[in-house]
Amino acid sequence: MELSADSDLGRIWNTPFSIPLLFSYTFTDAEFLSSFESDFDPWGNVHSGDSLPYIPQQQIYTSIGLGKAPWHLKFDNYFVDSMRTRAGRGPIVESLSTDSHWVSNVTGEFRLPGEKTVAALFLSVRNLANNEYIVARRPYGVRPGLPRTIMAGVRFRVGRP
User: Fold this and answer.
1) CA distances from 129 to 31, 78, 80, 89 (A)
2) Cβ contacts of 16 within 8 Å, gap of 6 or more
3) Which residues of 27-42 are buried (b: 16+ CB within 10 A; e: fewer)?
4) Beta strand pairing status for 143-144 and 149-156?
5) Can you name the residues that pair with 4 across neighbouring β-strands?
6) How many CA atoms lie within 13 A of 56 on its CB side?
7) Mean pLDDT of 134-145
8) What is the rounded end-to-end Cα distance, in angstroms, of the chain?
9) Is 44 in a helix, a strand, or coil?
10) Residue 160 has pLDDT above 70, yes or no
């Protein structure tokens, strides 16, 4: 099941700024419908009703922005529930799962002046709080989530405006 809503609060409040707001929620209940044995390690000996590995039950995404040409600022957050790393049922065992985690990002963009501008400068900070979390356990052991990452550059729009 997925629910999603978005709006531009700037239009609703009649401001000179665009204030885009977005919310999305996803709920997934995925399970095997039959029993079988598999050589694929994350599945192993599967019983009917076991949950599929690497499918989070809940995910949330929120975003709010502020902008007025030629600039735009966006703050977004996402949540991913812990996931099994092996087929199974019952409580999720910590050593056989990923971590649930919230991650926040911020991005700013400034479109370069010009009548037919196709370029913009941007600065983005991913994982603003530098949260540490496990996103996978395969292949070859624990895989951490992206640490705080700062990116800056120039974006070019290609094709029709």
Assistant:
1) 34, 13, 16, 33
2) 10, 68
3) eeeeebeeeeeeeeee
4) unpaired
5) 24
6) 16
7) 92
8) 35
9) coil
10) no
Indicate the burial class of 96 (C-beta count within 10 angstroms; 0-12, 13-18, 19 or more).
Answer: middle
Query: 69: which DSSP letter?
Result: T
| CA-wise closest residue to 34 among 47, 51, 43, 53 | 47
| Residue 40: predicted pLDDT | 87
Closest by CA to 51, choosing from 91, 4, 101, 81, is 91
Beta strands of 17-56 (E only): which ranges?
20-27, 36-37, 45-46
Contact (Cβ atoms closer than 8 angstroms) between residue 65 and residue 96: no
Is there a contact between 51 and 30 (Cβ–Cβ < 8 Å)? yes
* Token output for 45: 């000996």
Rg of the chain, C-alpha, whole Å: 21
Identify whether the C-beta of residue 51 lies closer than 8 Å to the C-beta of residue 87: yes
